[in-house]
Design goal:
The chain is α+β, with helices and mostly antiparallel strands. Helices cover 39% and strands 12% of the residues. A hairpin with a 5-residue loop joins strand 5 and strand 6. The chain binds iron/sulfur cluster (2 copies). It holds the Pfam family QueG_DUF1730.
């Protein structure tokens, strides 16, 4: 009778799937091969105010810095695609309502993925090698995770800078367990966009300055989440260019044919959309108090923008709203919001809204 043996790699991958990871692969724990490109990108200022991306650069770009004797990276991906009222690839067409990026509609992925990667490490210690050591990488930097995921066979780089899996699309969270176990690496993923450039053409701010190159300072995701100050006036209209993108932006993923064809809704309970991220009128969001914000966005990625960032974005989007209550809501925020950043954006939006009304009503 033929004997089948399960390799350590197969055992690890099977358990990772049991933990709810959709994709899993293995890469060698070598320093990033894109170090120079990453440094150039930072030097050109494309990271904007995201100074944290330049901190601990060695650690970000070399797994050995995180774990001495690191040998392998177990790289995982978790689908976060949430199909609400919209179909795959299409944004919700709900005038005067907010659109939150899909990744932010449920619970914070850092907590979910980190916890499960440590569970995977526990499993490895129990079943494979009691002396195995490991450290978890979640959000080590935009490049590193995508690079190791590509080397581990999970997907390839699209022109929108996202990691694309040819049969699953790009709506994935990525994470990695760095370990000192010597594991057989997978083959790097192969694939390409061909002549497609839909993402570049669809980006409302021109943030994709060339294939595979993002100037984060123009990206709505950066402007609505990472930027802590005023949104540059010339970029404010873009938040409403395709729905009201008040926290992140999925446009360059929505238009991607790989997502339109292959995205399937996640079954992970933690990533199911909350009522507030799925169904909120802008005028109601503009009235959120600090305690309400904390309660509604507990354990949510939206906390990152804080109340002042979120309401700044909401006020900005209301400049282009035709909600009959927009003007009153903006006036109230411009006069009474406790935060000066929100007041300034509300005043600008009120002014813009009134000018639009005057123009459209003039003969
Ligand atoms: S997330 Fe939006 S703004 Fe940023 S590059 Fe993609 S389409 Fe452009
Ligand atoms: S939209 Fe087209 S060019 Fe952009 S990432 Fe997808 S396949 Fe590539």
């Amino acid at each position: 009778m033929m004997q089948t043996t399960t390799t350590r790699e197969e055992q690890i991958k099977a358990y990772a799937k049991e933990l709810g990871f959709d994709l899993v692969g293995i890469a060698e724990a070598i320093p990033s091969i894109f170090q120079q490109q990453y440094r150039d990108w930072l030097e050109k200022g494309y990271a904007g105010q995201m100074e944290y991306l330049a901190r601990n650069l060695e650690r970000r770009l070399n797994p050995q810095e995180l774990l001495p004797n690191a040998r392998s990276l177990i790289v995982v991906a978790m689908n976060y695609y949430a199909d609400t009222e919209e179909g795959p690839g299409t944004p919700p067409v709900r005038p005067n309502h907010a659109i939150f990026a899909r990744y932010a509609r449920g619970d914070d992925y850092h907590d979910v993925i980190t916890k499960r990667l440590y569970q995977l490490l526990e499993y490895i210690k129990k079943r494979i090698d009691p002396n195995a050591a490991g450290r978890v990488y979640v959000d080590a930097g935009p490049l590193l995770e995508r690079e190791v995921a590509q080397r581990a066979g999970l997907g390839w780089f699209g022109k929108n800078t996202m990691l694309i899996n040819s049969r699953r699309g790009s709506y994935f969270f990525l994470g990695a367990l760095v370990t000192d176990l010597d594991l057989e690496p997978d083959r790097p993923a192969q694939g390409h966009c061909g002549r497609c450039k839909r993402c570049i053409e669809a980006c409302p701010t021109g943030a994709l300055i060339a294939p595979y190159q993002l100037d984060a300072r123009r990206c709505i995701s950066y402007l609505t989440i990472e930027l802590k100050e005023a949104i540059p006036v010339e970029l404010r209209p873009a938040l409403s260019a395709n729905g009201n993108r008040i926290f992140g932006c999925d446009i360059c993923q929505e238009v991607c044919p790989f997502n339109q064809k292959f995205s399937v809704p996640t079954t992970e309970p933690a990533f199911q959309p909350r009522e507030i991220t799925r169904n909120s009128r802008l005028v109601n969001l503009l009235q959120l108090s600090e305690p309400e914000f904390r309660e509604k966005f507990r354990k949510s990625p939206v906390k990152r923008a804080k109340r002042r960032g979120l309401l700044r974005n909401v006020a900005t989007a209301l400049a282009y709203s035709d909600d009959p209550e927009a003007e009153a809501a903006l006036q109230n925020a411009a006069e009474h919001d406790p935060d000066p950043l929100v007041r300034e954006h509300a005043a600008w939006a009120l002014d813009t809204l009134r000018k639009r009304k005057t123009t459209s009503s003039s003969p």
